[in-house]
Write a structure and sequence with these properties.
CATH class of the largest domain in chain B: Alpha Beta
Oligomer: heterodimer
Shape of chain A: globular
CATH architecture of the largest domain in chain A: 2-Layer Sandwich
Helix content of chain A: 25-40%
Strand content of chain B: 15-25%
Low-confidence stretches of chain B: 1-17
Strand order of the largest sheet of chain A: 4-5-10-6-7
Number of domains of chain B: 4
CATH architecture of the largest domain in chain B: 2-Layer Sandwich
Largest sheet of chain A: 5 strands, antiparallel
Radius of gyration of chain A: 19 Å
Number of strands of chain A: 14
Low-confidence stretches of chain A: none
Number of domains of chain A: 2
Structural class of chain B: alpha+beta
Shape of chain B: globular
Radius of gyration of chain B: 27 Å
Chain lengths: 286, 770
């Protein structure tokens, strides 16, 4: 196994393309190192992307932010402006692992690991985040909800890697929130995760909403029906109940050691309601 | 260094004891192992290295139950870098009945030789089938992949009720149940039936106004020690061997290994490392005999370290259980009869802690009519090892749940109900002996008057209480005090320090000798340093070790008086030992300057040679310890998640030698109980394979899951110990399961009879009652 540390996107793309699928990208390594150690993956080359400047920067862009794929959870937490604009996204990142893990783990790695239960993904979907991907044929952009295609599988083609995210600007009276359910208080993997983002007009009517749902299907879902239940309402309890019904209808979970179908479906609605109320409160205060 | 000394001095002045006759016992002195542990200097099981050391790895069965037709090691042994391999052929067989008591469990060498290395069959997923030693871990792993094992996969059984059914897959084809007259003709998975009690149940139940009968079920759990099993073995060509390992008892490990390696016990020297938790799970051997056998073949040292996955699949869990309890009481709250039938998973070999569970279940009560029956049942899981008051948490969970329900039905305060029936000095225990001085009533009364119990619950919260009991043990113990030429003292003990025994034993040694605490340095000797020492278990070390250390101090004092008497040329009876000095008394009072340790030590050579205080004893009279726990919970009724809001442990310590350590034991037991009650469980797939062999999905509590656990140390002295000590380490895990279940019942008005009360179970129960 070779370890390479390219300093440009082009070099990284070449290394990954030459490996013909035998390459793995290393950002924080909090998933990859565990997989290497347990023998789950045996790559020919590990490409560390952290020396590529764009993967490590947070820059203001068009009223929103461009966030490098390898920016760590701890760095996101310390970025006040980003946290103010997208509190739900940052709180989702902060839920990953422990304080020590936060010093390494990145949002990009969390997405590329393609776990259906990844905490940041429903929050990024709710936020309408876009992925910027570099590859042999140049760069392309993809909405987060289209990035993962199944458990452990992504839309990335041979030679491609995730460089950064765009978190868009947002109008006044907007708020987002992410909640997950775990049996413990931390250091665990989501049984259900829900991200909600919404914007209100000056009369308190919801004019835009997005709802991301994790751990209840093969990939995290954008649930348009849940958002539709909120848009045009004052996000009253009746609207929230309709949103909860839409969430539960969208669930396609499995029975496994972390939760049953019945339990996941039930709790996804509960969390969606709670996340929505937090997002609403944030929107009203912003 | 100055900073360390400052901590030392500051802490020494923190005297809690009101007993002016004691200088050290009862204080919160600094721990002798503290600096090494916070600086990373302390050496744990995996921290010993030798030149030319090999790395050993174990091939484990992927099947829950399979006959082993053949094992072909040839390709593995041919791999460059592989130096040795062992299988069942490298260990002796022992007949059934080759048993030996060890700690709180009984060791059966027929079973042990099969547990460390599968013989006829692999009996659980993770069962060791072969092991190799190679120049590095990578080669060793590669070698494992080259071992060819021909398995005939057999039907398996995990659940205890399933395993007891006629026609269940037999873990051992020739097992006839012990303890049943006449002996059954057909083999079964039931290894043993035990029964305890006294009185007449029918008569007792006929006097009852209320009878409550419930069935309970719990899932198997693991001790969850943080440090995986690890050892380093070095066999020399002349048949002598050294072993370094993380163990609760290096003398006991020595005996097991010598038996399994067929060597003289004296030829094996075992040194224990610092231990990263054991809780009973490190009272047996897994890797040690394999490493020794590999080292003997390779003539090189062999190191072996388990992964966390191996710890979960192959090392000492405790039982899951099915339990039926029936208790009757009169309207005024007097229990008239109690009956329990306990069925415990033993794992692949007999020896579950069901006898202890049956003995402890009703121990907090003074009953006229009581009977407990236990069944020890084989199943395709790792053989259970001791776990902190082995069995008692389960039996007490069932009994204390029914006691709570009785109190509620009779509209009597649950503590008042327990006090009306509490065991006290002179009570016939439910399992036989009459109790001596015990603190059951004192813990209940302390609970009644505690601020926690008197406080008002927040809306939606529930409160539960439960009592718990553990026997505690004494046993064979040796200690030596060596007087150094500068008057300082080296204390050598032979029990691994798991819960602060170096601190407590040093404090008792300094107290008995009357010297400054920092003049006594404790060391845990290897197996060649002292006479036999039973393992650290059964909450025995501060009790039995205290007796040994006190005895060694008395032996040393006798010699010190003799030296002073010889120096002064006065009769020995005219020399007494006071405040760390030999003092002339009677007719010689004030005629000689007192001689301290330094005065005597510097002239040891002239007065008769080295001074060594020794004591070897089989300590008897361990005082049992009762506890009572109070817990408040919040239940999220929409997700079923139970959170512990407040928790108080009240327990009798006899005498707390080092209160901080005693409190730590109370808190640690409560936290393990919280995990057991709420989330911990082995999850098996349909093939009997463990699905959650790691701390991610086997959920022990993390710090943020538990509140600060409040503690109250009750002290009802144990008259058989020089300082009144009772064991305290195990009782703290006995009450939590029931206390938490009772609190959840109080919050939801739903009685849970199954553990863990994990969110899906709790939510399903809430929804089923609407």
């Amino acid at each position: 196994m070779r370890y390479e540390v390219p300093e440009t996107k082009g070099e990284a793309v070449s290394l990954l393309a030459m490996a013909e699928g035998g390459g793995r990208v290393l950002a924080g390594g909090t998933d990859l190192l565990v997989q290497l150690r347990s023998g789950m993956v045996k790559p020919d080359v590990v490409v560390d992307i952290k020396k590529i400047v764009e993967t490590r920067e947070i820059t203001a862009e068009n009223g929103g932010f461009r966030v490098g794929a390898a920016v760590t959870g701890a760095e996101l937490d310390e970025h006040k402006a980003l946290k103010k604009l997208w509190p739900g996204v940052v709180e989702a990142v902060e839920l990953i692992g422990s304080t020590q893990i936060q010093g390494r783990a990145s949002m990009g790695g969390n997405l590329c690991n393609a776990s259906p239960a990844a905490d940041t993904v429903p929050a990024l979907i709710a936020a309408g985040a876009q992925c910027h991907i570099a590859g042999p044929d140049g760069e392309r952009t993809l909405p987060v909800e289209e990035f993962c295609t199944g458990p452990g599988v992504t839309n990335l083609q041979t030679g491609e890697f995730l460089v950064s995210f765009t978190l868009p600007s947002r109008p006044p009276h907007s708020g987002d929130a992410y909640l997950r359910f775990i049996p413990r208080t931390e250091m665990d993997i989501a049984v259900v995760g829900v991200g909600v983002s919404l914007s209100l007009d000056s009369n308190g009517i919801c004019v835009a909403a997005r709802v991301g749902l994790g751990a209840v299907a093969a990939t995290a879902l954008l649930v348009a029906e849940a958002a539709d239940a909120l848009i045009g309402t004052s996000v009253d309890e009746g609207a929230i109940e309709n949103m909860i019904s839409a969430i539960r209808s969208a669930c396609r979970p499995i029975d496994d050691k972390r939760g049953t179908i019945v339990y996941r479906t039930q709790v996804s609605g509960v969390l969606a309601g709670r996340a929505c109320r937090i997002a609403l409160q944030r929107a009203e205060q912003s | 260094m100055a900073a360390v000394e400052k901590i030392f001095n500051d802490t020494i002045t923190d005297r809690e004891t009101q007993d002016k006759t004691l200088k050290w016992v009862g204080t919160r002195a600094p721990r002798p192992d503290g600096v090494d542990k916070v600086t990373g200097r302390a050496k744990f099981g995996a921290d010993t290295y030798l030149p030319n050391m090999l790395y050993g790895k174990v091939l484990r069965s992927p099947h829950a139950h399979a006959r082993i037709r053949s094992i072909d090691m040839s390709r593995a042994l041919a791999l460059p870098g592989v130096k040795a391999g062992v299988t069942r052929d490298d260990f002796p067989d022992y007949p059934a009945g080759a048993v030996q008591p060890a700690g709180e469990m009984v060791i059966n060498y027929r079973d042990m030789t099969r547990n460390i290395m599968a013989r006829e069959k692999a009996l659980y997923e993770g069962h060791a089938v072969a092991a190799v030693a190679a120049v590095n871990e990578r080669v060793a792993r590669q070698a494992l992949s080259l071992i060819e094992v021909d398995y005939e996969v057999l039907p398996h059984v995990i659940d205890v009720e399933e395993a007891m059914k006629p026609g269940a897959p037999l873990v051992r084809e020739d097992l006839i149940t012990e303890g049943v007259e006449p002996a059954p003709e057909e083999p079964s998975n039931i290894a043993k039936r035990v029964e305890f009690g006294h009185g007449d149940l029918d008569l007792g139940f006929s006097k009852a106004d209320v009878i409550i009968e419930r069935s309970f079920k719990t899932q198997p759990v693991h001790q969850g020690y943080i440090e995986p099993h690890a050892c380093l073995a070095s066999f020399s060509e002349d048949g002598q061997a050294e072993l370094w390992c993380s163990t609760q008892g290096h003398y006991v490990a020595r005996g097991h290994c010598a038996k399994l390696l067929q060597m003289d016990v004296s030829k094996l020297r075992v040194t224990c490392s610092e231990i990263g938790g054991g809780f009973g799970g490190k009272t047996v051997v897994y890797l040690e005999p394999l490493a020794l056998a590999l080292s003997r073949k390779a003539c090189q040292p062999v190191k072996m370290v388990m992964t966390r996955d191996e710890v979960f699949r192959a090392s000492g869990p405790t039982s899951g259980a099915s339990m039926d309890v029936r208790i009757g009481a009169t309207k005024d709250g007097r229990i008239t009869a109690g009956e329990a039938v306990l069925k415990f998973q033993a794992g692949a070999f007999g020896g579950s802690p069901v006898p202890a569970a049956a003995q402890c279940a009703f121990a907090p009560y003074d009953l006229d009519n009581v009977k407990t029956i236990g069944f020890d049942v084989l199943c395709n899981r790792p053989k259970v090892a001791a776990y902190r008051a082995p069995g008692a948490p389960l039996g007490e969970y069932a009994v204390e749940s029914v006691v709570d329900e009785l109190a509620k039905t009779l509209e009597i305060d649950p503590l008042e109900f327990r006090l009306k029936n509490a065991a006290k000095e002179g009570s016939d225990s439910s399992y036989g002996p009459k109790f001596g001085p015990i603190g059951c009533v004192e813990t209940l009364e302390t609970a009644q008057n505690h601020d926690h119990y008197l406080s008002t619950l927040k809306p939606g919260q529930g409160r539960g209480v439960a009592s718990g009991y553990w026997f505690n043990i004494g046993g064979q113990t040796s200690a030596t005090l060596n007087l150094c030429e500068d008057g300082s003292v080296a204390l050598v003990v032979g029990t691994p320090d798991i819960g602060g025994s170096r601190a407590s034993l040093t404090m008792m040694a300094a107290e008995s000798l009357g010297v400054e605490l920092d003049k006594v340095r404790p060391l845990i000797g290897d197996t060649s340093a002292l006479g036999y020492n039973m393992l650290t278990g059964g909450s025995r070390v501060t009790f039995a070790g205290g007796i040994a250390v006190h005895g060694a101090a008395e032996d040393m004092i006798k010699q010190l008086r003799e030296r002073a008497a010889a120096t002064w040329d006065v009769p020995i009876d005219d020399v007494e030992w006071h405040g760390g000095q030999a003092v002339a008394v009677n007719g010689y009072k004030d005629q000689e300057d007192p001689m301290g340790l330094l005065d005597i030590a510097k002239d040891m050579a002239k007065s008769g040679g080295p001074i060594v205080g020794r004591c070897s004893t089989n300590a008897q009279g361990a005082g049992p310890s009762f506890g009572c726990h109070i817990v408040d919970v919040d239940v999220d009724k929409e997700t079923g998640k139970v959170s512990v809001a407040r928790y108080t442990v009240i327990q009798d310590a006899g005498k707390a030698v080092h209160p901080s350590y005693v409190e730590g034991q109370y808190q640690g037991g409560a936290v393990q109980g919280i995990g057991w009650a709420l989330n911990e469980e082995y999850i098996y797939d349909e093939n009997g394979k463990v699905e959650n062999a790691g701390f991610l999905d086997y959920r022990v509590p993390v710090c943020s899951d538990v509140p600060m656990i409040d503690t109250v140390i009750v002290e009802v002295p144990n008259p058989t110990h020089p300082y009144g000590v009772r064991g305290v380490g195990e009782t703290p895990l006995v009450p939590p399961l029931a206390a938490i279940s009772n609190a959840v019942e109080n919050a939801l008005d739903i009685r849970f009879t199954e553990l863990p009360m994990s969110p899906p179970r709790v939510l399903a129960a809430i929804e089923s009652v609407g």
